[in-house]
Amino acid sequence: MELKPAPADLEIESHSCLVCGSDEKTVVATAKDYDAGYDIEWNIVQCQNCGFHFTDPRPTMDCMLRYFYPEDYVCYQRDNLSPLTAKVTDMRWNTGMYLLKREIEKILPDPAQGRILDVGCAHGQILEFLMERTGWDMVGVEPVREIAEQAIKTGAEVHVATLEEAGLDSDSFDVVMMSHVLEHVDDPDVTVREARRILKPGGCLLAFMPDHDGEDRKRLGSLWWGYHVPRHLYHFDHISISQLLEQRGFEVLKVRDTPFPNLQAWNIEYQARGRGLSGAGLKLFSRYNPALWPAATAMGIYFRHTGNRRSGIMQVVARKSVLWDSIPDEVKKRRLKNENAMYKRRGIEALRMEKRKNRSWEERRFYPAMLRRNRPLMKRFSKYALKNLLTGKPTFWGADLAITYGCNFNCRHCFAKSSLADPGKKPMNTQQWKDVIKHLLEADCIFFQMQGGEPLTHPDLYELIEACEPGRSLVNVITNGVLVTEEHIRRFAELGIIRLEVSLDSAIAAEHAAFRGISEKEAQEVFDHCMWVVKRAWDYGIGGGIYTTVSTESLWTPGVQELISYCRENRIAQYFSVAAPVGAWQGRYDLLINAVDREYLRLMCEKDPLPYRDITPRRAFSYGCPAVKETLYFTPYGDVCPCPYTHISLGNILEEPVMEIRRRAMKVPQYRDRVDICPVAEDHSFIGRYISKTYGADLPADGRKIFDFHAGSAYSGIERGRVLPTDGT
Questions:
Q1: I need a labelling partner for 54 at 20 to 30 A (CA). Which of 88, 96, 545, 612 fits?
Q2: Cβ-count burial 197-232 (b if 16+ within 10 Å, e if not)
Q3: In angstroms, rounded to a whole number, what is the distance separating the alpha carbons of residues 229 and 42?
Q4: Predicted structure pTM score
Q5: In what order do the strands lie in the sheet with 115-119?
Q6: Cα atoms in the 13 Å half-sphere on the side-chain side of 564
Q7: How far, in Å, are 382, 497, 644 from residue 446 at the CA level?
Q8: What value does the mean pLDDT take over residues 14-39?
Q9: CB atoms < 10 A from the CB of 272, how many?
Q10: pLDDT digits (tens, 9 = 90+) for 251-269
């Protein structure tokens, strides 16, 4: 293809990084424009601070519109296709539209109605399709008048302006949709902020854009379709789009790749153009040639199964955060600087390229080998698996037992001793705990986790472990490690617990001590003792593990990163608990992990079986967050809560059966449906709607008031008679 010389009056300009504002950048690639056809090489640069990629320098917006959006630009084409191409294109288009409709239905509060804005609606094809098939109120924004006039003919409300110029009402849309828009606009920062302003509280931004980190870009280089220079000013990937949105008040719910075959057809055409084909040869490899689409589909499948297994288009779903206004301004300003962003990017990229590790024989002995040796336990696991298989629904299988709120530490994040402990309430005695455990065993509970407070401060801990019948169930003990002696470990081994988890929050002794409220003099001694407990547990045949609490501030610190490396190198199981705005951290929304942190933890747990979170799929049947669906938390007073961090009482085990309590709680959507994030620590809507109501209330708060169970429901209709003894008899 013969390219034209650059326009004589072309004006170009340079910009700072959109995500962090840094001026430090390096050229990493060059690409040519095969649509407008000018013989100009455009630079793709990478920010040296945060790793974001963008086109720099670039034409001024006036020159961009004048020279680089020709009349036959792909987004303006509609009626000049051959009959066969038009028919096949319509079939493909309708398939894509039905998938888009389904995605919008998933994020609407009520799928039957909603107000949707399509930014950059072009001819209004999406508006027309959705208006004909739904009851949604469709609105479009299109800055090019000649194109917008065709969209107006669909009958939709169309504004001939940019999003910022349209002057739309605040809090007026359920969904703002941007299909291949953010990479084109001059300042996505302004566009994103305007989208947030016009969204209703809890409303969602649905955006589509090329994935710069996709395997097709890495394989095809400068001839990758997604560069589309100079019209694509910004080249987003999973990390950079998450950072951009979360720094502007959004909560990123999902970022995933969708391998549309027609985009691989663009890649084929770009390869032909880059190799100088023209005329009939170029027409043969045109993206509009239906004969190419099988090959394009095969390319998409290939890229999705090689390298980092990502290619095509990113689909981003981000919700207007209801917590954003509660975060201090100084924290927002600090986040805009995007410190350590390059370090985070490299950490995530390194994990993506890792090969998946398998459990060694030593690590496998606790589950498969244990089941083979233990027929009663295997029988109960088989019953659990069969029930899941036949019903297709989650089955209750685990209990977190806070047997005491007594503790020898004053941890920075404490929720038990600082919030839930109530001197005015009488905790259950040992016999009552045994009755509760017996009731849970009868309800087919397989897994018991002893925690507190500090469980070793309970005088009858061994009796309670025995009551769980370790031969028929799995028992885990979580401790801060300081009180554990050789005798404790020996006794735990005799009783048959499967794991002893020790709370450690940094590989730097002074940091761990500060987090746990330990004096500097004792810091190194306490740290060394905790590590001894973990190693000694393995010597006794118990799975020694480490329990680490992380926030968005602590996850990337040297102490936590060293601890992660130590556990992975020494093959020690490490459980991650993420910061929740409860207990001593009540209202600390600035500590919540973000999408980048979540991706890092997800990849680590996916690549290696030893690091894990509760939401990590670890069994054949996994339903995301296990709260209520699979596990429940029991306080020393008999209150039943969804999890240790959700301080909302669903009922009391001394007054009604556990399965009745669970059945009622399953009415809450976050507990009924699959949720792949932690609601109390990562779901801003859940925190704003439910958790914030517990602030200032007596804890655990009454679930009837928080979750607003309707009158006449199972909750209000229950006769709350005693099902377990309350006097120890």
A1: 96
A2: ebbbebbbbbbbbbbbbbbbbbbbebbbbbbbbbbb
A3: 7
A4: 0.86
A5: 157-159, 137-141, 115-119, 173-179, 199-210, 313-320, 250-258
A6: 20
A7: 11, 13, 18
A8: 90
A9: 21
A10: 999 898 876 667 788 888 8
Query: How far is the C-alpha of 239 from the C-alpha of 314, rounded, in Å?
Result: 11
- Which residue shows structure tokens 């975060």? 327
Between CA 638 and CA 269 the distance in angstroms is: 67
| Alpha carbon distance 661, 723 (integer Å) | 12
Tell me what pLDDT residue 729 has: 30
The per-residue b/e assignment along 657-696, b for 16 or more CB within 10 angstroms, e otherwise, is bbebbbebbbebebbeeebbbbbbbbbbbbbbbbbbebee
Amino acid at position 106, single letter: K
Cβ contact 690:706 at 8 Å: yes
* Average predicted confidence (pLDDT) for the chain: 86
State whether the Cα torsion 218-222-225-228 is positive or negative.
positive
Check pLDDT > 80 for residue 144: yes
How many CB atoms are located within 10 Å of the residue 444 CB? 15
Closest CA to 135 of 160, 166, 104: 104
Phi, psi (rounded to 5 degrees) for 566: -60, -45
d(CA 347, CA 651): 43
The 3-state DSSP class for residue 600 equals helix
Identify the helix (H) or strand (E) that includes residue 181: none
Please give the angle made by the CA atoms of 290, 293 and 297, to the nearest 5 degrees: 165
- C-alpha torsion 43→48→54→58, nearest 10: -50
3-class SS of residue 645: coil
Distance CA 524, CA 579 (A): 25
Instruction: For residue 101, give both structure tokens.
Output: 């409709």
Q: Give the 3-state secondary structure of 540-582.
A: CCCEEEEEEEECCCCCCCHHHHHHHHHHHHCCCEEEEEECCCC
Using alpha carbons, list the distances in angstroms from residue 571 to 359, 543, 577. Answer: 9, 11, 19
Is there a contact between 209 and 236 (Cβ–Cβ < 8 Å)? yes
